[in-house]
Design a protein that fits this description.
Blueprint: H1 3-34, H2 38-64, H3 78-109, H4 118-145, H5 148-175, H6 181-208, H7 215-226, E1 233-242, E2 245-254, H8 260-277, E3 281-290, H9 291-296
Parallel strand pairs: 2-3
Antiparallel strand pairs: 1-2
Helix pairs in contact: 1-2, 1-4, 2-3, 2-5, 2-6, 3-5, 3-6, 4-5, 5-6
């Protein structure tokens, strides 16, 4: 699947996400105000932040899908990691604001906390169902095009679903006669958001510092090389993740008595084989060492 097709899939998912989040955040905010639930209002703010984060994801994917140019000869894939870091920061700030609001209500306004109405409870249930569905929808798209930014947005949906679970429990406990649990739910939501933000940030950083591919992928690449005709051994193999793609550098041993053209053909076959079998391999560099010299060294 080419980058243009990946971009179309990401943009379609993002547009659906924006529409649903706008409607859902408006529903939550209205329900929170009418039903006097600080937890539901906090949840509405979280959903509204999803809209902003999706715009960041769209911008990151748009830039990262651009072809290489004179200033970026290795492509723009790492801009998607930048989008993920911005998203994680926005998510963390949202969580901090929600947590501060909950603590402030408990410390300074405990005596004025009102029992939330049934409308807030219904809104929490609707939010859980919708946001969990959006998580799986967005995650499927992220897996299909291997997009870190889109996966970050999927986990943003999951964190929103979890925060709605916290709202549901807090509102339910408040309606049973313990109104203090409504602002406590806001603090629980804050913790869920912090966890999601940290996971997104960590994944983005790992993709920006030339981390190697996972062991299973490395094993499959090694097996693909070893089964190619003319390969007498693998002297070294290195990989580095570059945004949503990765580079492979390989040194192989081959018969030292063959011509340069024959050695080059082996290297070309390995190059083409890896790039065709591994969709996320952005580029493969193959160096050929003479087998006899290696044995005698």
């Amino acid at each position: 699947m080419d980058s243009n097709e990946n971009k179309k899939i990401a943009m379609r998912i993002s547009n659906v996400s924006i529409v649903i989040n706008v409607v859902l955040s408006a529903l939550k905010m209205l329900s929170g105000v009418i039903a006097h639930s600080s937890a539901m209002i906090s949840d509405a703010v979280h959903s509204l932040s999803d809209v902003l984060s999706t715009f960041v994801v769209m911008a990151g994917i748009h830039i990262s899908s651009k072809a290489s140019d004179d200033d970026h000869q290795y492509g723009h894939e790492r801009y998607e990691c930048v989008a993920s870091i911005i998203l994680a920061t926005m998510l963390g700030l949202t969580g901090a604001g929600i947590g501060y609001s909950g603590i402030k209500t408990i410390v300074y306004g405990a005596g004025e906390i009102r029992t939330p109405g049934m409308l807030a409870l219904i809104a929490a249930i609707v939010s859980i169902v919708v946001k969990e569905a959006m998580f799986w929808y967005t995650k499927a798209g992220a897996d299909k095009i291997n997009s870190g930014a889109l996966m970050a947005d999927a986990w943003h949906h999951r964190s929103d679903a979890m925060s709605s679970v916290g709202s549901l429990l807090g509102i339910g406990a408040a309606r049973l006669g313990y109104p203090i649990f409504d602002p406590i739910a806001s603090i629980v939501i804050c913790l869920f958001i912090f966890k999601a933000a940290w996971d997104i940030y960590k994944d983005a950083i790992n993709k920006m510092v030339d981390s190697a591919v996972d062991d299973e992928t490395l094993k499959e690449i090694r097996e693909a090389i070893e089964t190619e005709d003319g390969v007498m051994g693998i002297d070294a193999i290195r990989t580095r993740i570059f945004g949503s793609k990765y580079y492979v550098d390989v040194e192989i041993s081959a018969d030292g008595s063959q011509s340069l053209r024959e050695a080059h053909e082996i290297a070309e076959r390995i190059h083409d084989k890896i790039e065709s079998q591994f969709a996320d391999a952005k580029h493969v560099m193959v160096h050929v060492n003479p087998y006899e010299e290696q044995e005698n060294s």
